[in-house]
Amino acid sequence: MSLWNPQSDKPLSVVIEDPSGDPSADLERGVQLLRQVQSGERGALLRIYRPDPTLAFGQRDIRLAGYEAAREVAQQHGFAPLVRKAGGRAAAYHRGTLIVDHIEPEDGSVMRQQIRFETFAQLYANAFQRVGVNAQVGPIPGEYCPGDHSVHGTPDESSPRKFPVKLVGTAQRVVSGAWLFSSVFVVEGSASLRQVLDGVYQAMGVAMDPTTVGAANDLLAGVTTEAFSAALLEEYREHATLIGL
């Protein structure tokens, strides 16, 4: 029995992808994999990739009067404006971030949505702690794409930045018999993310404190996306058998 799925003790296939150059196709790929897992064509998997610059709007964002202006802001900053099918508010990512789509078959998967948020948040905080970042579970005031199970990092005396920053945003998509838990880990290059998110949230008229937009290497100099990816897989190995590496 796995930590996040009491119905499964099967291994997780790890699929590490390069971005296709088409952010829309990369975003849609997660939904395609979810359907394949739902149909039994594929088993449980972790899809990991470092995306091209993308501004992923949530379903609530597209109903705002400032949505079209926000799309233009994203394009001006070089981020492809897209709409994701999972929940949440606007989030930005680029090659300094890591996206993980964890997909599994599970009967009655809608009943365990809250438990998955709690379980994965702690797992992800532990992974950041493995690379020396002081990560904790919980929202910080004014964060973008707010959620009760955000993972944030707090600075110490030697940190380049002095404010808590959001490190992980998560969202779920649940279908009959399967679920997709999608997460964005911000490790490097926060300046461009801060600029585009500040502009996008202002255009939408949604309150957001840009100082909450940061990255792991804002808190601990020298942390790389490669190092964090390895730490995340090590944390997963504490709870599951990984194959395909």
UniProtKB/TrEMBL annotation:
<feature type="compositionally biased region" description="Polar residues">
    <location>
        <begin position="1"/>
        <end position="10"/>
    </location>
</feature>
<dbReference type="Pfam" id="PF21948">
    <property type="entry name" value="LplA-B_cat"/>
</dbReference>
<feature type="region of interest" description="Disordered">
    <location>
        <begin position="1"/>
        <end position="25"/>
    </location>
</feature>
<feature type="domain" description="BPL/LPL catalytic">
    <location>
        <begin position="31"/>
        <end position="236"/>
    </location>
</feature>
<dbReference type="InterPro" id="IPR004143">
    <property type="entry name" value="BPL_LPL_catalytic"/>
</dbReference>
<keyword id="KW-0436">Ligase</keyword>
<dbReference type="InterPro" id="IPR045864">
    <property type="entry name" value="aa-tRNA-synth_II/BPL/LPL"/>
</dbReference>
<dbReference type="GO" id="GO:0016874">
    <property type="term" value="F:ligase activity"/>
</dbReference>
<protein>
    <submittedName>
        <fullName>Lipoate--protein ligase</fullName>
    </submittedName>
</protein>
